[in-house]
Amino acid sequence: MDITPTSKKPMNSFCICYNLIDSNIVDIPLLPEAYIVPLSNEGHLEYIEKQATSETLNSHGLEYLDTPHEQLLDICTKLKPNTLKKRFQTVQRKKLTLSDLLKDPKKKEVILMYVHKKLAVFFELIYTHRYFISYNAERKDRVEDHKLTLATNHLHPIPEFTKTEDGIEYAFSLKDGEKIFIPQKHNIVVLLNEPAWISIDKKVYPIQNLNANKLKPFQNKEKITIAKKHIKTYVEKIIIPVIKNIDVIANGFDILTYTDIKSKRIEVVQDFIRNIYVAKVFFEYHDVTFEYNGSKSTYSTVLLNQSNDLQVIQTKRNPKNEQEHIDFLVSLGLHVNNNLMLELEGATDPYEILEWISQNRKQLENQGFEIKLPLFEGKNSTTAPYNITISNQKKKTGLTSKVL
Description:
- The protein has 404 residues and is an alpha+beta fold.
- It is 24% helix and 33% strand.
- It folds into 3 domains: 14-150, no CATH class; 156-252, no CATH class; 261-380, no CATH class.
- The strands form 7 sheets. The chain has an 8-stranded mixed sheet, covered by helices on one side. Strands 6, 7, 8, 12 and 13 form a 5-stranded mixed sheet that branches.
- Helix 2 runs antiparallel to helix 5.
- The longest helix is centred in the first third of the chain and has 25 residues, at 105-129.
């Protein structure tokens, strides 16, 4: 029984609710656990009934096998601190805690990578399937009071730099459509650093192209003042890594903006799920290359002169111009699939795209497309035309003849 947050069920109905808790282990993000929770007639989450296990789910008639819940429950189990400790503890005889393991820098890197990878899948599944999720709910509480709602849009980060007599003022805001969030003025909980997931006023949002930890300085202050003597260090270590894939507002600085496509490229790549070769399109602007099927639309960086004056350089994709080039490829018979790759619609031969390139190569090159073909068994492939000549010359050798 799959119950969504918008459902209204009888009082005796139950749902699976995922609850985020703080393990109080340094550097470990909030970890999920799963509970069975009753729903009121109004569809509100009541008090925790039981922990969600295969036995309790079956006894409550909650179907979870062969649904996203099965994967989510597995993630919850694998991210329990004790399970993590057992997984990464190499010497079992020693009585170590997860905190002890994290003191080893090499182990810490491996553990955090594993945790973040699992959490990235967890939040994506919760967000996609609109499952119930709460934050710090306890058995004594109505879970409804701790419930997090799920946004429908990604947040767009907006760093802003203002030149002052004393240096630079650095501010940060987040945009949801026309709504602007100033972090200091809202209750923000970082759920995962990268990919970034946060809760703003009990609503869960993904953030594009940002490590969520970069928001933390702005939770206590609206702006950060960077004195002139610290500008170079701060820009190189803090600002450039933050702004490289997002748009920037710069007040009082020179801004160079590039929106022209310099070159374009088609790469034939394998779709491993469908076992077919497809065309992936790249557009190069200035010194930056964007994938047509990629989500990144901006690349920003800054240059500093000897006087520590900033020059902001932004490269922005030109959707209209890109679409013109894609339309040209479509006019030659290709089809844009759901992953924004191009393929021949209804193709039955997995290599059919190579034949298409062979037939249209001259037109593609005349339009400025560079073509990159895949390697097969470590060898370059080619779509160049070829001729096969069969010679029937006969050479007499006694009573026999040989066809060469």
